[in-house]
Amino acid sequence: MAGNTFGEVFKITTFGESHGAAVGVIVDGVTPNVEIDEAYIQKQMDRRKPGQSSVTSPRKEYDVVQIQSGIFEGKTTGTPLFVVLYNKDMKPEAYNDIQHSFRPGHADYTFLQKYGIRDHRGSGRASGRETAARVAGGAIARKLLERRGVEVLAYTQEVGGIKCQTFDEDVIEQNAVRACDAKAGAEMIKKIEHLASIGDSCGGIVECRIRGVIPGLGEPVFDKLDAELAKAMLSIGAVKGIEFGAGFEAASMLGSEHNDAMNKDGFLSNHSGGIIGGISTGEEIIFRISVKPTSSISVTQQTINTNGEEVEIKTEGRHDPCICPRIVPVVEAMACLVLEDLYKRQAAIFG
Amino acid sequence: MAGNTFGEVFKITTFGESHGAAVGVIVDGVTPNVEIDEAYIQKQMDRRKPGQSSVTSPRKEYDVVQIQSGIFEGKTTGTPLFVVLYNKDMKPEAYNDIQHSFRPGHADYTFLQKYGIRDHRGSGRASGRETAARVAGGAIARKLLERRGVEVLAYTQEVGGIKCQTFDEDVIEQNAVRACDAKAGAEMIKKIEHLASIGDSCGGIVECRIRGVIPGLGEPVFDKLDAELAKAMLSIGAVKGIEFGAGFEAASMLGSEHNDAMNKDGFLSNHSGGIIGGISTGEEIIFRISVKPTSSISVTQQTINTNGEEVEIKTEGRHDPCICPRIVPVVEAMACLVLEDLYKRQAAIFG
Amino acid sequence: MAGNTFGEVFKITTFGESHGAAVGVIVDGVTPNVEIDEAYIQKQMDRRKPGQSSVTSPRKEYDVVQIQSGIFEGKTTGTPLFVVLYNKDMKPEAYNDIQHSFRPGHADYTFLQKYGIRDHRGSGRASGRETAARVAGGAIARKLLERRGVEVLAYTQEVGGIKCQTFDEDVIEQNAVRACDAKAGAEMIKKIEHLASIGDSCGGIVECRIRGVIPGLGEPVFDKLDAELAKAMLSIGAVKGIEFGAGFEAASMLGSEHNDAMNKDGFLSNHSGGIIGGISTGEEIIFRISVKPTSSISVTQQTINTNGEEVEIKTEGRHDPCICPRIVPVVEAMACLVLEDLYKRQAAIFG
Amino acid sequence: MAGNTFGEVFKITTFGESHGAAVGVIVDGVTPNVEIDEAYIQKQMDRRKPGQSSVTSPRKEYDVVQIQSGIFEGKTTGTPLFVVLYNKDMKPEAYNDIQHSFRPGHADYTFLQKYGIRDHRGSGRASGRETAARVAGGAIARKLLERRGVEVLAYTQEVGGIKCQTFDEDVIEQNAVRACDAKAGAEMIKKIEHLASIGDSCGGIVECRIRGVIPGLGEPVFDKLDAELAKAMLSIGAVKGIEFGAGFEAASMLGSEHNDAMNKDGFLSNHSGGIIGGISTGEEIIFRISVKPTSSISVTQQTINTNGEEVEIKTEGRHDPCICPRIVPVVEAMACLVLEDLYKRQAAIFG
């Protein structure tokens, strides 16, 4: 109800504020007898952590994961896994100046309107720090999906108006923005560094490809595969849109162009993005999300304070000028959570 | 689990195939003591029904709603409402030729892959006919939202590449495509009639504006208002993408442009689309969806049959060359369901 | 939330008032490709219907089931089944005298307190008529359990202080009270007929045995097999208690007596009732429920009316002097729903 | 699905094994702006902890609670509370001898059958240690219920065949078995000490009274107040039965005896136990549970090992000879969880 649980069978419940003691996740519905260790999860955490490069925040969150239940002698037992990351390097006093003002683009105003109280320190629960728990839970889903032969791969497709022209899987983890085109990636980095130098930020587009999914995944009529992925992605703070396959292009196509014809080897095109009628076709699943520019900028902006008075604000601090490279592992994590859950839901109906 | 229920507090569960006896909906969690009658629901059904104009399917579904429980002396009792529409004008034999072939763009292939069996008659449960139950349930949500002063308005923004240039609320229900620009609407109708004459179809963009929502709606971190709306919209068969506020444009904006500044009268812009941090700001909520071209076309297409043999197919029958005008009331219905549910979820937490 | 849905994977949602147009059920999560027909469901409905014998209400509800979706050519398709029973033989005017008074033992007072409105005709949604939809849904679960080799058998164990002394499975459906001891059953019938003649009623105990369940069913820590069965049984209107295995006797046993020892052939006793730690052991599952005397009696009783004034009331009408024989199929239906759901939940976790 | 979450709006999700690093709970759906501190929770933990008296296990679990999220400046923020208890005084090697044998009455056998793997150390997740997380979550519900004027009071009513003859609220927390009759309590203690001396154990009956609940709580038809309480209580490991009001006595009463008549001051009796039609009447809610004798005894018992060979077993270690006094706070915690959740569900429907 309160929305801190995601999934139906393979289910995560998260907690934790940016400057609280810890962020963590209980993962329920985990297949028993599967080998999982902290190092496997840590690898995904390291892809999300700040301070990785010149284009990410210099904060050090020391995202060291600990598994505190659900594992016995290196294997899952079928009982809930608890994975926790204790917070360190917290500087709550750095946020004193924003305690009584609403930063534009931030959830300061809406959280206060909703709950009548807010933990302003580092945005509290509205902080991107919250996604660390998603990545931890998603790593466990990823482990289970590996056994099914499913691969989930996200990458930056566009930043600040600069688009990738090629798709080269091998370069993604080799450049600081996680672009799929090394040349475009280099330009993106320059652009981000420039924006950082003037205290501004920019958005971008992240694309995700999923391979190896059986045909048949997704639960019509409401819990379609694309519907579940859309919810998962829009639940990430900075995401403002999603499209599957031909996406918004489909709006100006003819039926005779858009329909994916088949021959005995399979589909002849993939305008559907691997999903028809809310069910996977067996083709590559492909979607793109729009990522808004980071709200925290040190440019002076106009806003109001909690007394309703007009004030100016300038968010100092250690922020990412472009969130795309760090959102990539979060997108993958959320996609893994959706897929593993739907595999188990499919098993339930036939079980 | 199987995905035929939508919502958590205000909750609908639907059933029904295109050529079965009926489609219907159980609506649970309805506020007691509210006046609701069949005429109110019927009005929404009539906006969705086929045969309204030259640009919709000539089928006659006789969508006459009946409320069979949950009402006593004209008022809701707090027990579940059951609303049913008996099917008529069914011609299942019209589908005999597609019984053993997979129509491109249709869910024929994926349903068979998923369930190992499929009701091919008029696409069975994958038919757009299923959305009639959503509109019936959504009408009840709309009634409850009226009492809150919330208005939900969807309309066609683009069809076959023709875009609306103005926004005139009054013309929407006056033109057959439900465009918000009468002149563009007239061009769209011509384009659709032409495509119909050559057996092809086209897609479009539907926009939705929601007014009167309190600030504070939406349940972070996973059940954000935009996440729930995205799921709702992508659960509609033909929808391939959604964007909120600046949407995909946000990807190429700077933070200093995108952030919505505030003064004492409120927000100075609405790039966020009325939602920040997954919670309503109190501004107009605005989103757009991409609608794919109707899959059913009478152009000859290449496909395979259930034996895996290559065949050609040409879908005859009574189909909509562009689904936008009839998807408009479905979009509104789904938005109403999301909003009424989130209002009740908000009440639960404080209750 | 509003409580008209039962189950997580195999899930029923019901609607309908005693004197409304119909009662019905949507069954979601049904295994595809299973043969089910109306006759199979009807057989269970006939065991629940009134007018079966001298000890049940003479009302005729004409419980004729119709399946209106989810079946294609005699087999389930994986889409929701809708099963409906249209109401007939309604005499709402028979309830005019109780419109403004609260019948002792009935939910008249509590429904009005809860919802602020009530459909008084035949108790509306609080009527035992509501259980018809459960029996319809339970019949579908029973069909699926047959394929697993699971049998669910309930019967009357005690009525009005008269206890069964033997357990003879073959006589259960041969006597009007569904007692497991023909001799005790004959005495029970006499007692019930006498109470009916003086306008009073009595309670009893119904026992249920479940055979053929695999070891391993049940979801600790909260959704234990006994916890789910307890909820299911207490959700039936007249039930006031439940006990498993040794039950309330366990309270006065020693650990050395109660613990079920094992040898290589299995358990040496079954004080646990086939459930340990909330998980099935593979032994027979056995529980008993306490059924209160029917509230509707024609003895004069003291009560108040909706104005808070003291009045006398005497409930005329067509009521069961003892509900045990008709509650037996409802107990079986609810047990089937719990079991099929837990089988599918077990499959989900490993799936 | 996997059953580690309880509640719908006010919802707890727990994790933790007896000899793992910690047990803990995420509490979601907490009313914002309520003062809660660790001391309030600790008080309930101390009532549950072992080592309180001569009749409880001498283990020291050091149940020191820490709240690690969801609180800001002493008040709830509406975001999830995380409450954790780190385990100490663990002696996993004490369980080496039972690693390969199934202790009679324990969940050793069923857990292995279900999951194919088990953490045998101190029963792993099947340990009573798991209920510490319930008491922590229940304390938060209790805090919210205090604001509503609701009181939940459980106590031992019977132990080893010795029954309380009086009900004296003031003595409950003054005697080591938490009996409501000081004299009976003293006899119970003697009996338990004797059984402990010979390595055996006994069961008992715990009763619970709930006062101050508004009329109208409970969600028919499936989520009735008594159905939800029954599930909650049967989800506690040692509980084998529950009865409300007249309970199993109702089975031998006449309708004219059992029906609770009313006059203008309210109900004239309370055979219903404060619940009619699954909804609270406003009277005291009263139920009793049957608690089985502790399974862990040092009497020699017959069992099998994981190879299916017959062996003898004798459970040494630090166990409670009667679990009643320590189950009392768990019963209260579960009742609080059910009530707070149903209050919020009621608010949702009208909200």
UniProtKB/TrEMBL annotation, chains A, B, C, D:
<keyword id="KW-0521">NADP</keyword>
<feature type="binding site">
    <location>
        <begin position="292"/>
        <end position="296"/>
    </location>
    <ligand>
        <name>FMN</name>
    </ligand>
</feature>
<keyword id="KW-0274">FAD</keyword>
<keyword id="KW-0456">Lyase</keyword>
<keyword id="KW-0288">FMN</keyword>
<comment type="subunit">
    <text>Homotetramer.</text>
</comment>
<keyword id="KW-0285">Flavoprotein</keyword>
<comment type="similarity">
    <text>Belongs to the chorismate synthase family.</text>
</comment>
<protein>
    <recommendedName>
        <fullName>Chorismate synthase</fullName>
        <ecNumber>4.2.3.5</ecNumber>
    </recommendedName>
</protein>
<feature type="binding site">
    <location>
        <position position="318"/>
    </location>
    <ligand>
        <name>FMN</name>
    </ligand>
</feature>
<dbReference type="InterPro" id="IPR020541">
    <property type="entry name" value="Chorismate_synthase_CS"/>
</dbReference>
<keyword id="KW-0028">Amino-acid biosynthesis</keyword>
<feature type="binding site">
    <location>
        <position position="277"/>
    </location>
    <ligand>
        <name>FMN</name>
    </ligand>
</feature>
<dbReference type="Pfam" id="PF01264">
    <property type="entry name" value="Chorismate_synt"/>
</dbReference>
<comment type="function">
    <text>This reaction introduces a second double bond into the aromatic ring system.</text>
</comment>
<dbReference type="InterPro" id="IPR000453">
    <property type="entry name" value="Chorismate_synth"/>
</dbReference>
<dbReference type="InterPro" id="IPR035904">
    <property type="entry name" value="Chorismate_synth_AroC_sf"/>
</dbReference>
<keyword id="KW-0057">Aromatic amino acid biosynthesis</keyword>
<comment type="pathway">
    <text>Metabolic intermediate biosynthesis; chorismate biosynthesis; chorismate from D-erythrose 4-phosphate and phosphoenolpyruvate: step 7/7.</text>
</comment>
<feature type="binding site">
    <location>
        <begin position="125"/>
        <end position="127"/>
    </location>
    <ligand>
        <name>FMN</name>
    </ligand>
</feature>
<feature type="binding site">
    <location>
        <position position="48"/>
    </location>
    <ligand>
        <name>NADP(+)</name>
    </ligand>
</feature>
